[in-house]
Amino acid sequence: MKVSGITPSGRPQLGNYLGAIRRWAVDGSEHDLYFIGDLHAMTTTHNPAKLRAQADESLAVLVASGISPERVFVQSDLARELGALTWVLECTCSYGEAARMIQFKEKADGQAGVRLSLFTYPVLMAADILLQGASEVPVGEDQSQHVELARALARRFNATYGEVFTVPRAVLPLTGARVRDLTDPSRKMSKSSPDAGGVVFVLDEPDLIRRKIRRAVTDSGSTPVYDPDGRPGVANLLEILAACTDRNPRDVAGEHATYGALKEAVAEAVVEALRPVRERTTELLGDPAELARIRKAGAARAAERGEHRLNSALRLIGA
Ligand code: ADP
Ligand code: NA
């Protein structure tokens, strides 16, 4: 069983959808779990009301994209279980091994008022994985050190106090298209981008999507050619179009005579690809009782899945 999280540090965007969520819905196994990692979004400056809205929107987008509600939960709905397990795991982790986490050094570098939780979040991540008994964790290179930590903690706990945890391993994630920022194709499209003009959000209205894509940076050429290094803006548009229409960016390139025509085609393809997700997400967000029911059921299942591990771990460590 695999567990994957998405951090609601912003609103779900096209890159999340084409690169991850759509793949999870189509190719994911029925045993995989997905969670909205809102506790992880509290490790840096955040706005509580916004975070709550972003967590609900993220959950709604996952379900609207076709991921079974049985397979999703919001992390903070398990705050008590995860808080307790994080403590157990902090008592299993040495300060030295936590201090070796490269991500902390990168994220904290030059920042004032760094939260302690930014330092300890890899232990919460270990709790996310170990509570559910996940054997595999699909992560990119940037998170593999954290999965190594979860492995080390599971092994150490099992050897010191008794066999409780499945020892997880990092696996390659299911990946779809890599979507770049529309106004700065040197960086990936991200929900936490400072410039929303370069980001298509899943819930953007069709006309806003069209405007953003029309304003996407290209280059001094005029006829679309697929050249990711030399012409990253146009390559990004071709990749988005190819992903939305299940084709290959090179094949798509030959079909549009001008950048203007390409942009129109990209805009329509994105609008159409997102339309059913946007409609279903909007429907869910407009039905708070249904959303609450989905959250509650997902949390109950996830808590139940972890209950015996948490209870055993507490007892074995001396509680
Ligand atoms: P963000 O940068 O938007 O905060 P996350 O780090 O929360 O994204 O990533 C959630 C999932 O979406 C991950 O599986 C990640 O690989 C995928 N993802 C995020 N941005 C993109 C992108 N621009 N293109 C493709 N996949 C992406
Ligand atoms: Na992010």
TrEMBL record:
Lineage top rank: taxon: Bacteria
GO cellular component, one term: cytosol
Protein name per UniProt: Tryptophan--tRNA ligase
SUPFAM superfamilies (UniProt xref): Nucleotidylyl transferase
E.C. designation(s): 6.1.1.2
Keyword Protein biosynthesis attached: yes
This protein's record includes keyword Nucleotidyltransferase: no
